[in-house]
Design brief:
Blueprint (H helix, E strand, L loop, with lengths): L23 E2 L7 E5 L2 E8 L35 E5 L2 E8 L5 E5 L18 E3 L16 E7 L3 E5 L6 E4 L20 H4 L8 E8 L2 E9 L3 H11 L13 E4 L6 H13 L6 E4 L22 H10 L3 E6 L10 H4 L19 H14 L7 E4 L26 H22 L6 E3 L11 E3 L6 H10 L17 H11 L5 E4 L13 H6 L6 H32 L4 E2 L1 H4 L13 E3 L3 E3 L8 E13 L5 E11 L7 E4 L2 E6 L11 E8 L4 E7 L13 E7 L4 E7 L7 E9 L1
Parallel strand pairs: 13-14, 13-19, 14-15, 15-16, 16-17, 17-18, 27-31
Antiparallel strand pairs: 1-4, 2-3, 3-12, 4-5, 5-11, 6-8, 7-10, 8-9, 9-12, 10-11, 20-21, 21-22, 22-25, 23-24, 23-25, 26-27, 28-29, 29-30
Helix pairs in contact: 2-11, 3-4, 6-7
This protein binds beta-D-galactopyranose.
The site of beta-D-galactopyranose has 9 residues, from loops.
């Protein structure tokens, strides 16, 4: 006979609890929305943690900057509809959703786009905000998991937390919201069984571990783009690169010596390959995993001489590093009390949230790099590897002197590291342009672009579309390729990214010599190398022609928060057809880019309302329309909006402090049109003290004119050598 161990039939009934054990639902009347500035509110729920993204903001918020935006709309939901709970697990917030609303954002998701899509329709999904070095998963983990989203209803929400929060975008059904509307049908396949549950009422549920409360910041519209701009201005405004940062960057092989670096750098000059920045990978240091942060005496016996020689060839320098500090580093002992309690690759994890840890690290880097004239850094490995069986990084339980734990530090380390490395250059009044592999909320003012080891071109292009939802910059880098077609398509996409980088850290020769990594390192030259070299030069020249246009787009990012590269849905909020377009993107005010992918000789392109011109053929199309375009391998499809003056520069090979671009003002369409170019010294922060000007190129329908306004007094940046009409 079976004895019912652990099984209990007929147990006495337990009365139902009035609320789940250890959970407190806060009485809703106490919820208040505190105005922060025009169209921005803070809603404080429970007792927020002290160490959050707003505590570590990268730049001050100037409420006056909001005057460039449309008048704000009212708070998008009634405060009584907000439900807040906290328990031993942490806290949660429920916000009402309109069944038709669509959500975007949450950082740099290269696999996800429209965040109410769950692979089976618009039924909502979970997005999990945890930093990872493998962003191409469909949970929302990424190099930059940002707790900020925007809605097609025209508002944005920042959840001010450094925890690994989960957002359920309309796929959970609180019992008290009534009948959820499940089908209730028995199923005979798992597809049927788990098919999308489209709920009648939608709720945004935010789950935040560990915290007893949280601040929400709500950003008003009227459109999603207005909400994004408000968020970017609240962050402190978008960054402006040094002018040279918009040129091309080449990164040499990891173990190149000074002699090898300068030899290849010289070769690029002889080939007239446009290049502004030379990237040093780990081998400039004596120890690199973890990092000594000192020059290797054998490979770089004379760092000053090397820097001078590279500057002499008109290269700026960018040096790779990560923060984990090797025992041989001269700052190791001083840093020890200001580091976390776990090592990474045998190195200390500096606590950049303490002023001491930050200062020790800064002073050393200033001496070793910036003081020698190195212009920028690539901040590697500051993401995480949470799903690995053998992760390299520090555990979530780590403790840091600032009070941050490992989970919070994983979220914030990228932002803190960027700030740490930016401040010494700000003190030297030198702008910088760098790379980083982890970022988070309020990052718009940071002049660093996120990159990844992952290499899927479709994901790369999606990254370009989504970066603009969350105040981030993204570069889909180019290294080796499986075919010439793959190489060209990658390179073309990059020409429209915030940075153009050929990252040959594991290749001795440039990819135009050999695209295959193994053959490249054996020195085998592709038979078509001469032709490819010429075609790559032409492609890179296209980027150089775009520099004045891009520089103006970045100035708009700073002043108005308008993301320089963004998804179409931000520009056409009323057009429902753009809501799922993640393989086209906008650059600046007027360029629509629709890359071709490997295996495609043609693709369909959606052109929203208005007239558009194919850049290559100058053919005119009237949107909204879907067209089929085909392009040869050397061309990437892109379109210019009618009513645009496109400042097309004669390509230079590198940008000097006194470079003046010769520009053809290309007028697209019949109507009057204008564009405003941005002028300043290109390298310092003097623009913030007024040393900047706007050059407006205006076409009145019959002739062009130029007007300059502002106080920049240096050498002219642009000379309009011709006006050209395209219609
Ligand atoms: C990787 C990084 C690469 C390269 C390499 C050098 O982590 O993503 O771009 O810098 O390190 O070791």
């Amino acid at each position: 006979m079976l004895t019912g161990i652990g099984v209990c039939f007929g147990a006495p009934a337990t009365p139902p609890p009035t609320s789940p054990a250890s959970t407190t639902a806060t009485a809703t009347p106490t919820i208040r929305a505190e105005p922060v500035a025009a169209g921005i509110w803070r809603i404080r729920l429970g007792e927020p943690e002290p160490l959050t993204p707003t505590r570590y903001r990268s730049a001050p918020f100037a409420p006056d900057s909001l005057t460039t935006l449309a008048a704000p709309t009212p708070l998008p939901f009634a405060l009584e509809q907000i439900v807040f709970r906290h328990s031993r697990r942490g806290c949660s917030v429920e916000l009402p959703m309109d069944p038709a609303e669509r959500i975007y954002g949450f950082g740099l998701n290269t696999r996800l786009f429209e965040m109410t899509q769950n692979g089976k329709g618009n039924a909502g999904r979970r997005v999990f905000l945890r930093p990872t070095d493998h962003p191409e998963n469909d949970l929302g983990e990424s190099h930059a998991p940002v707790p900020f989203y925007v809605s097609t209803r025209g508002y944005g929400v920042l959840v001010d937390t450094a925890r690994y929060a989960s957002f359920f975008t309309g796929n959970v059904a609180p019992v008290k919201s009534g009948d959820a509307g499940g089908s209730g049908e028995a199923a005979s396949t798992t597809t049927e069984l788990y098919q999308a549950r489209t709920l009648r009422k939608k709720t945004m549920l935010v789950e935040i571990p560990a915290a007893g409360g949280v601040d929400l910041y709500v950003f008003s519209g009227p459109t999603m783009l207005d909400a994004v701009q408000r968020y970017n201005l609240f962050s402190g405004g978008g960054c402006v690169p040094p002018l040279w940062g918009l040129g091309i960057e080449y990164r040499g092989a990891g173990k190149f010596s000074a002699a090898e670096s300068s030899a290849l750098a010289r070769q690029l000059r002889e080939q007239h390959m446009p290049c502004d920045v030379w990237g040093l990978e780990p081998g400039w240091q004596s120890k690199a995993y973890s990092c000594s942060l000192v020059w290797d005496e054998k490979r770089f016996p004379d760092p000053d001489g090397f820097v001078a020689a590279m500057h002499g060839m008109n290269y700026r320098l960018n040096a790779w590093q990560h923060a984990f500090t090797h025992p041989t580093s001269p700052i190791h002992a001083a840093l020890r009390p200001w580091s976390g309690d776990f090592q990474v690759w045998g190195g200390l994890v500096p606590d950049f949230a303490t002023s001491e840890g930050r200062r020790i690290f800064q002073q050393h880097n200033d001496r070793v790099l910036f003081g020698k004239g190195v212009e920028g850094v690539k901040l590697d490995e500051c993401d995480h590897q949470p799903t690995s069986a053998n992760p390299w990084s520090f555990p979530d339980v780590s403790a840091f002197p600032s009070g941050l734990d490992g989970e919070q530090m994983h979220s914030l380390i990228g932002v803190l590291y960027q700030q740490t490395m930016l401040e010494p250059l700000q003190q030297r009044n030198r702008r910088t342009w760098g790379l980083v592999r982890n970022s988070h909320a309020l990052a718009a003012p940071l002049p660093y672009t996120i990159y990844s080891d992952e290499y899927d071109l479709r994901c790369y292009v999606r990254g370009l579309a989504v970066q603009g939802f969350s105040g981030l910059l993204w570069v889909p880098e180019v290294r080796d390729s499986v075919s010439l077609e793959d190489f060209y398509r990658r390179l073309q996409v990059q020409l429209f990214a915030p940075q153009t980088i050929i990252d040959c850290w594991y290749m001795n020769n440039p990819p135009w010599v050999q695209i295959d990594r193994a053959k490249n390192n054996r020195g085998e030259v592709m038979p078509e190398s001469a032709r490819v070299t010429a075609e790559v030069r032409t492609l890179l020249q296209l980027r150089m022609s775009l520099v004045p246009y891009l520089y103006a787009a970045f100035n708009a990012y700073r002043v108005t928060g308008l993301p320089p590269v963004r998804a179409l849905v931000l520009d056409w909020p009323a057009d429902t057809r753009v809501r799922t377009i993640d393989d086209q993107f906008m650059v600046g005010p007027a360029l629509l880019v629709a890359p071709l992918f490997v295996g495609e000789t043609q693709r369909s392109v959606y052109l929203p309302a208005g007239d558009w011109y194919d850049f290559w053929t100058r053919e005119k199309f009237t949107g909204p329309t879907t067209i089929t375009v085909s392009k040869p391998l050397e061309q990437i499809p892109f379109f210019v909006k009618a009513g645009t003056v496109l400042p097309w520069a004669d390509p230079v090979e590198w940008i000097q402090d006194n470079t003046c671009f010769d520009v053809v003002a290309r007028v697209y369409g019949d109507q009057p049109a204008e564009c405003t170019l941005y002028e300043d010294d290109g390298v310092t922060f003097d623009f913030a003290r007024g040393a900047q000007s706007q050059l407006t190129l205006r076409w009145d329908g019959a002739k062009g004119s130029e007007t300059r306004a502002g106080a920049y007094a240096g050498p002219a940046r642009y000379r309009v050598r011709a006006w050209e009409r395209i219609r």
